[in-house]
Amino acid sequence: MPSKSTRGAVAAALLAAFPAYHLSAQSDLDRLALRFASMTAVTGLEQAITDSLLALLPGSTRDRAGNVTVTLGQGSPKRLLQCPLDEVGYVVGNITGEGYALLRRVGARTTYPLFDQQLEGHRVTVFGTKGPVPGVVAVKSTHLTRGRVAAGAPDPVFTVDNAYVDVGAASAAEARALGVEVLAPVSLTKRPLPYGDRLLAGPGAGRRAACAALVAAVQAKLRTRGTVVVAFTVQSLYAGNSGLAGVKALLGPFDDIKTASLPTRYTDTAVETVALAEVDKLMREMVQWMEGR
Amino acid sequence: MRAVRDGMLALLFLSAGPPVRLSAQDSARIAEAQAVLAPLVESYGVSGAEGPVRELVKRLLPAWAKSETDSAGNLWVRIGQGNPLVVFVAHMDEIGFRVTAIREDGSLELEPRGGFIASLFEAQPALVHADKGDVAGVFIPRDSGFTRHTPPPVRVDLGTTSRAATMARGVSPGATVTMPKQYVRLTGTRATGRSFDDRVGDAAQLLALRHLDRAALKHQVIFIWSVREEIGLEGAGVAAAALGTAPRRVHAIDTFVSADSPLELPNFAVAPIGAGPVARALDNSSVTPPAYVDSLVRLARARGVALQLGTTNGGNDGSMFTPYGVVDVALGWPLRYSHSPAEVIDLKDVASLADLVRAIAESW
Questions:
Q1: Domains by residue range for chain B, with CATH
Q2: Closest residue by Cα to residue A133 from A145, A122, A141, A125
Q3: Per-window interface: A 28-87 vs B, CB < 8 A
Q4: Where does the pLDDT of residue B17 fall: very low under 50, low under 70, confident under 90, or very high at 90 and above?
């Protein structure tokens, strides 16, 4: 029985996730990829999405680190098929007297040099203790910069240290009354966008679509060769990939390890793009791998 | 895939919990302001392509109001008889892009329509407003030039790989481009979205008309919803030329860009959001004569409207009337983060601005 706060966290992860657009020829896997791409799982704070996985995968369990695993088949060989769940994101680090939340980044590795700048002037969601709280990250008004910035003046990139999250509160007390507290996860508001010929864009869309493919593969009720441990791992982007290390320590050793992943375009941006045809292909490949074909 | 479908049902069940109802305690005034403003904010109308906004304004007018559209695309509503003629003008257009060319690889080259920080659009979802309907795509992230606000020219990827494939989606040069937008309530009476500038002005005029006591009018009043403000006050210029020296006053109802933000310098434009509409007494396009500001203050006080006074940057449609000897008494409401996807307002200011517009029409 999930706790009240857990249920709230699950709802929080899914709220505001309704797609703005509908895929033209949605399959169930397309919809699952879209929905996973709508979720937020800041590294180390993945509980909401793992709650969802537990609901999706009967027989699955969550270990003490937070990884969700399900064991299929028996005997040898014993193999591991894993999908990292987490994403680089932010937590509230402080709240100013005027009610703005300040941020600390969690997870360091991204390939996009302007990763933090994507916050500037955009919607974010604070996953507070009372549910998701909509907010925006402050940006200078275009009109008020006119005539005040000399041509050729330094224009350093935006970093998380410049981020003031405005949830509409006028004081720290008002922000806290919304459930905005230090350590609350924060991410760009997720509104994954289907476009083109079955393309899906959104922050971390590649990872989430790969995990959706793995869920679909597990649900295919296949006959595995030997034992296959399927793991949806946490903290892959922090503390030396400790989630995977924990799975290996607790359930290993493994004769073989495979990671579910997909090629992406515009990687690590807010429009990271994955081809849903590749998601279908990955699901088939993982079924074959588990069956030992 | 049955199991996946079952899983989806589980997810839907889990997501069915009650959302945080930030607007549950709204007064009737705030609820009405939001009901008019939200659809205006969520409609699209880049400068020169204001048709959807104009049609929505028409639908939101009170049933008695007769509107007409001039050759420029401005929407007019005339009420009352006699002099002095007083004009209100709020613009319908928003910033965005226009397609200038389609590359061989299918991507779109763009030019900006209006002034804004281009980096706020890159690596974001895009909407191309094509003849056959909106087409989704993405603003392509830059792969070089990693400074803050000066990206290389922004392009759009529609997921196509050839010019022919792009054109087959109904996209051609001249189409306008924006990013998807939503009106979202923040805590209290605050809200965020894109193009509050100047949909709040549009909404304030509509709300004023809805509550106007037409029997109280002592002279003719014209309400104009104008086009192409963001690219040089063009629609207002057409309206001003048509009216010539006839109006005594014009009231541009447009954004007061506020320095009520931790990022702004505090030496001017500090009008807190939620503290009421603002007399935009000095901006980059006009100065309101002090005697008129004084009259406005007296009127606001008499009608119980909390009015702020201030000076900010930007031009306003009313300034196109001043060469004809018309006095521009511009009014606004405080806005944070102007021309960004995350503008922030307070709905109390919208309702109060509408009260002030109504008061001016009836009593000044």
A1: 2-94+194-363 (3.40.630.10), 96-178 (2.40.30.40)
A2: A125
A3: 28-29, 31-32, 35, 51-52, 55-57
A4: very low
